[in-house]
């Protein structure tokens, strides 16, 4: 491993492991995971105006929220204390040891990097080193696995560049031969993360609709709910994501090749679309935050990550098809409009995909918005073929 590559992996892994250990020691000192609230409360009743409470049957529909309130939980109550805490601290110590060995024995960087990734993932029950440690550990491990590539050329580095809306990334993936297969793996990873986030969040939300005790544990103690059903979400999301990716990539390719005269092939456009989906992976953090207006928070996360994705797509389309910003925006408006109709009027409702979705009704209103988007796309020159010399 080169000195520069070795130092990057070493620093990221070591700092991440130290933060994880500190997070665990904090829990050992306080006796419970860290729960940050938007303002201090001591009971659920302080969050709501109680219109009616049945002592034997509690339903959150009987509550009316007076204001928005949210909490962030750095750890999972019930899995972060006592013997569980001892286990996580041992794993965190192994993580730190692997980080040190990456510097001492760089020839074993691949196997050690995989261990760093695994140990960092297992840190989430105790808060993942205030989340920062988890992120640094994952990045450091992924960079170590792909050594001797420079950081920006690794899988993790490309994902970070996509989040930064780095235009040079989208230009590069449109011409790299291996980008198509990498794009498929990226979609799988993104939707596994997104599916787990929404699965845990929806299951926790369902529990709070049935029990006052569950509301107390979720909102004030930071608890989340797990069972085997959460693993159905990633499987469903991956299958649907591949289908939607192919639809959107085909639409953009047809507009670029047939209307704008681009010489890009489908296998050069599709990776760009795949990397635009990277912000959706942030939905894995959805269960960390819970509020007394749960559906609104889930919708806010959905909207933010999808708007982020749209911005990445505009930049990617501009770089891939080598067109102006106006034409790129117009292309995304037109293709995205068709994609939206197929996705949210047909795929999501008829396949009954679980999750939080932004579905506009009635269908005539959606068609009206699509017409407006098409007109704007035309004004931006989307349907004007480029002049050839």
Return the string of H and E elements.
HEEEEHHHHHHHHHEHHH
Q: Quote the average pLDDT.
A: 85
Say how many strands there are.
5
Structural class: mainly alpha
Q: How far from one another are the termini?
A: 48 Å
The coarse silhouette is flat
| Strand order within the widest beta sheet | 1-4-5
Q: With helices defined by DSSP (H or I, 4 residues minimum), what is the helix count?
A: 13
Overall helicity = 55-70%
- Using only CA atoms, what is the Rg? 23 Å
Low-confidence runs of at least 5 consecutive residues: 49-65
Percent of sequence in beta strands:
under 5%
The major beta sheet can be summarized as: 3 strands, antiparallel
Detailed description of the structure:
This protein has 13 helices and five strands. The protein has a domain at 168-379. The chain is mainly α. Helix 2 (82-104) runs antiparallel to helix 3 (109-121), helix 9 runs antiparallel to helix 12 (325-351) and helix 10 (266-276) runs antiparallel to helix 11 (294-321).
């Amino acid at each position: 491993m080169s000195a520069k590559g070795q130092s990057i992996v070493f620093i990221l892994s070591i700092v991440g492991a130290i933060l994880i250990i500190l997070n665990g020691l904090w829990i050992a000192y306080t006796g419970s995971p860290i729960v940050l609230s938007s303002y201090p409360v001591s009971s659920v009743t302080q969050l709501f105006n109680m219109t009616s409470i049945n002592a034997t049957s509690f339903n959150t529909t009987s509550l009316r929220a007076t204001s928005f309130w949210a909490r962030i939980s750095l750890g999972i109550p019930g899995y972060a204390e006592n013997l569980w805490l001892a286990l996580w601290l041992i794993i965190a110590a192994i993580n730190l040891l692997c980080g040190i060995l990456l510097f001492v024995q760089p020839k074993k960087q691949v196997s050690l990097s995989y261990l760093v990734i695994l140990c960092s993932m297992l840190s989430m029950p105790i808060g993942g080193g205030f989340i920062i440690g988890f992120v640094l550990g994952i990045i450091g491990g992924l960079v170590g696995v792909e050594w001797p590539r420079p950081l920006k050329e690794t899988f993790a580095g490309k994902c970070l560049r996509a989040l930064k809306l780095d235009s040079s990334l989208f230009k590069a993936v449109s011409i790299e031969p291996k980008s198509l297969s990498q794009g498929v793996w990226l979609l799988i990873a993104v939707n596994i993360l997104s599916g787990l986030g929404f699965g845990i969040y929806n299951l926790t939300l369902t529990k709070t609709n049935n029990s006052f005790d569950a509301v107390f544990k979720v909102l004030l103690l930071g608890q989340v709910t797990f069972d085997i059903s959460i693993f159905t979400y990633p499987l469903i999301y991956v299958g649907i994501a591949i289908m939607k990716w192919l639809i959107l990539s085909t639409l953009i390719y047809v507009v670029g090749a047939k209307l704008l005269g681009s010489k890009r092939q489908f296998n050069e456009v599709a990776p760009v679309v795949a990397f635009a989906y990277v912000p959706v992976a942030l939905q894995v953090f959805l269960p960390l935050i819970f509020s007394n207006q749960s559906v609104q928070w889930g919708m806010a996360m959905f909207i933010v990550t999808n708007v982020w994705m749209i911005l990445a797509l505009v930049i990617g389309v501009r770089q891939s098809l080598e067109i102006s910003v106006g034409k790129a925006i117009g292309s995304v408006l037109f293709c995205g409009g068709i994609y939206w109709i197929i996705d949210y009027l047909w795929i999501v409702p008829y396949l009954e995909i679980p999750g939080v979705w932004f579905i506009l009704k009635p269908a005539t209103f959606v068609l009206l918005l699509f017409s407006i988007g098409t007109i704007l796309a035309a004004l931006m020159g989307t349907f004007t073929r480029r002049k050839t010399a």
